[in-house]
Amino acid sequence: MATGFAQWGNDLYTGRRSYDIVGRRRTWYLISAVLVAISGILLIVPGLNPGIEFRGGSEFVVSGIDTTDQQLATDTVLAVAPEEVPRVTTVGGSSLRIQTAELTSDEVTEVTNGLIAAFDVDGDQVTSTFIGPTWGQDVSEKAVTGLVVFLLFVSVVMTVYFRNWRMAAAAMLALFHDLILTVGVYAAIGWEVTPATVIGFLTILGYSIYDTVVVFDKVRENTADVLDQTRFTYAERANLAVNQTLVRSINTSVVALLPVASILIVGAFILGAGTLRDIALALFVGMFVGTFSSVFLATPLEVTLREREPRIREHTAKVLAARAGVTGADGETVAVAPRAAAALRPGSHLGTAAQPKRKGR
Amino acid sequence: MAPPPRRRERPVRTLVTLAVLIVALFASIFAGTRWGDASLTPNLALDLEGGTQIILQPVPEAKGDVTAETINQAIAVIRQRVDASGVAEAEITSQGGDKIVVGLPGRPSEETLDLVRTSAQMEFRPVLVMGAAAPTADPTADPATDDAAPSDQPTKAAPDSPSDVAYYVTPAVQKEFEALDCTLPENRTGGVPGDPEKAVVACDVEGTAKFILGPVEIPGADIKSATSGTGATSTGASTGQWVVNLEFTGAGTPKFTEVTTRLAGQGTAPLNQFAVVLDALVISAPSVNEVIPNGQAQISGSFTRETAATLANQLNFGSLPISFEEQSVQQISATLGSEQLQKGLLAGVFGLLLVVVYSLFQYRTLGLVTVASLLVAAVITYGVIALLSWVQGYRLSLPGVAGIIVAIGITADSFIVYFERIRDELRDGRSLGAAIEKGWERARRTILASDAVNFTAAIVLYLLAVGGVRGFAFTLGLTTIVDLVVVFMFTHPLMVLLGRTRFFADGHPASGLDPRRLGVDVARYAGRGRVKQGVEQRTGSASAREPVAVGAPGLTIAERRAAARAAGTASAPPQDPPTTTDDEPTTGRPEGSDR
After folding, report:
1. What distance in Å separates residue A34's CA from the closest CA in chain B?
2. Per-residue pLDDT of chain B (595 residues; tens, 9 = 90+)
3. Are B409 and A237 in contact (CB < 8 Å)?
């Protein structure tokens, strides 16, 4: 199978096998648009489930207990504050987390003592947390500031590196797509959004751009002299680049996702609510979507943008016209219009069609 | 783009350099454990170790913004308070530029928490009475009947001046003063400042004296700045003595002039002294020798460099009109954190194993290079974190651990990019040595660009973020740098060396760089007049897959034609014509290569 995969990689590299990713870009745009729309709806209808860091309130954690009896915890809280509707969650195998609205200092002490008595644990096994409602908001504000600064910075860096703002613009669009989808998945699953989740979202920024840069680097390499030849259009060359980096994209995302997936599984099924689980889900979705978007969205978007450049447009028209012309003159339809661009290998024979045509043949 | 000047590769030298660096890294940590307070394991942050974390948001009380300097001074004061209260290993840092995070191990008392959250208040009050630190046994001793005091009646309706002892020192204040024992540490932790209109009793910060102080005359906000330095004589020559220079604002200058005018006129101690009160503790009680009209004062005394600097800092802090708003108080149980760490690390190790299996599957022996590189990266990361936790007081948090685990994927990607590039070059028919060189040139650019993006993300997150985000950003940035170091100083030199072995250079099937599996079907010149035949032509089965690949340089035209005929009869017509019937002349070099 590995041989098959390597062979597949070879075929992709040489262009013997090629997926017309750029050519079918309308399909990808449609898929992405639908996914983004669904995410948008999910963000409105169930909406994100803000964690205590964003709502503000008090939180108690009872750890190292034998029974994770949630009712016992609820009753303990209600004994102190009858108005409360405590949220009780199991964390890990032997811990309970109880969240309430903000309690007074005295109430906190009472609840703590109540929990110590109810669960028959030592004093240091019950912890209490107070979180002001501004704390999470503050984190998100910082996150948004971070986002804006980061985007500006990276746009400039990419524009300079690729010497073309369109690449930066395409990467940014793909990035927003990734973020919206990830947040949408979070809304769909309904896990609490904690600062750890925000960390995950922010990391997607870096990863999405990172992945796109690797693909774009190949696009740039393949299209460096696209105007000096008349065999392939810009879009075909870019499509070749995507195909050539497909193996790398797959390998990278598998390698990146494996550790994240194992944290996610451990976090979700063994540890329960907590930092690791929250980061892992955001990362898992974000990395997956990030790889998808750098292959199926970023490059097609980049091509769409580039084809608006007059030089590229003229060149594409010229190539297509030349192809049509050749076909007409010869009366043959044999493969003069290549379905996909291919990399040339030095020393390989290109077939008789590559030879000068003999008149009257 | 012109190719960069070829530099002779010195893989062994690079590898040795890296080894020396790693040995130096760990040697310094070992040295630290022996002669310093370093430990071989990184310090753990509160979420893993357990403790209490308080996040404070400074709120400017009057005008102005909270600057970084303000925050630093506030941190200095909080640290001083917490240290004075005997809490060991408190971790007080600023985060996100405008927040103070106080981490206290264990379960601190309510008093300690109060110390942290109260805002510092600095005031200048006149000294009315000064006494020894111990409680006065004899209540009849009445220092208030000092001759230098204005002869006022205690019963009068209004004081003559803030130094009006007879007015301010009521029997109640006197009693409180006598009972106060400043030798006890708990009385020297400071606290909430007293009524600004009334006399208060206070200890000095050293616990050597206690005071009755008059009403507030100058608030701390009227201090413009304070600096420490060596005093100068009137001729400008340095006296070599440490002094604190104090400058008042425009509003403070006339007040200070007024105070010094009155106090200098009173002559005798303690009534010619004013007290600088911070958090209800007297941090300095200088006596006034002359009227200071220009708002620029100098406090001299038996200062050392440190004490002068401390006083200057405290005075500066006093000029900060800020208070703190508690954003979150979090008690973290160590058991919960350690469970997460344990399981998280377990998950990380498991994920790493999967990565190893996958890369061995994908890259065969080359996968071992990936594994070795990841191991080197892990060792360096661990070393740097241990070093930083010793030198910089860095503490590893749970989001930090997550950052490291995430970095596995990003680090491994560098190798994947590199290996795929080498394979691409092999597919172009290069020899392994050339493929490694050329592949490196190209992969290097990609790796640098993508790591630059990642590093940018880490820096932006680190500078702007608060709390856990920061620990995560830090490890992310750190691992990005480690990734670069490993790829440049380990993976690439190792590849160069491996490229010289027969196992790899001849393309052993298990090497991961087997040209046959990479579909190299081109003959290439192998030197000394020999032509290395394309693999397809050696193995019959492969030729069916690529039937028209017959152009082998080094053969005569006749031979080529014969080969073409043989290929034409031996197998079906081209199955996949698009590639092979292209109409561009052979350029003899791959498309899109660097020119």
Report:
1. 29
2. 455 555 566 888 889 999 999 999 999 888 888 887 777 778 777 777 777 778 787 777 655 666 777 777 777 767 766 666 666 566 777 766 677 878 777 666 776 777 676 666 677 888 878 777 776 555 444 444 444 443 344 555 666 676 676 677 777 777 777 777 777 766 666 566 667 777 788 887 777 788 888 888 887 777 777 777 777 666 666 677 788 888 888 888 888 888 888 877 776 767 778 888 877 778 778 877 777 888 788 887 777 777 777 777 777 766 555 677 777 777 776 666 677 778 778 888 888 888 888 888 888 888 888 889 988 998 999 899 888 888 777 778 777 877 787 777 778 888 888 888 888 888 777 788 888 888 899 899 888 888 888 888 888 777 766 556 677 788 888 999 999 999 999 999 998 888 888 777 777 777 777 766 666 655 555 556 555 555 444 444 433 343 333 344 455 566 667 766 776 665 544 444 444 444 444 444 444 444 4
3. no
The CA distance from B168 to B159, in Å, is: 8
Contacts of B578 in chain A (CB under 8 A): 15, 335, 338-340, 342
CA distance B91 to A303: 52
Q: Which residues in chain B have their CB less than 8 angstroms from residue A256's CB?
A: 406, 408-410, 412-413
Sign of the four-CA dihedral B340, B341, B346, B348: positive
Q: Pairing mode, if any, of strands B200-204 and B218-219?
A: unpaired
- The answer to whether the beta carbons of residues B166 and B150 sit under 8 Å apart is yes
In CATH terms, the fold of domain B47-118 is Alpha-Beta Plaits (3.30.70)
**What residues of chain A lie within 8 A of the CB of B361, using their CB?**
2
Each domain of chain B, given as residue ranges in start order, spans 47-118, 120-329, 345-503, 524-571
User: What is the ipTM metric for this complex?
Assistant: 0.77
Q: What is the DSSP letter of B555?
A: B
Q: How close A117 comes to chain B (CA, Å)?
A: 18
- The pTM of this model reads 0.67
Report DSSP state, residue B498: H
Question: Measured between CB atoms, which of B416, B550, B578 is closest to A255?
Answer: B416
Count Cβ neighbours within 10 Å for each residue of B131-142 and write b for 16 or more, e otherwise.
bebeebeeeeee
Residue B555 CA to residue B564 CA, distance in Å, equals 12
Cβ-defined contact of A203 to B585 (cutoff 8 Å)? no
Identify the architecture of domain B120-329 in CATH.
Answer: 2-Layer Sandwich (3.30)
Question: Which residue in B406, B452, B584 is closest to A350 by CB distance?
Answer: B584
Fold match flag (B47-118 vs B120-329): no
- Whether A131 and B355 lie within 8 Å, measured CB to CB: no
Token pair in block for residue A332: 């043959």
Q: Is the dihedral of CA A80, A86, A90, A92 positive or negative?
A: negative
Residues of chain B in contact with residue A346, where contact means CB-CB under 8 angstroms, are 428-429, 522, 586-590
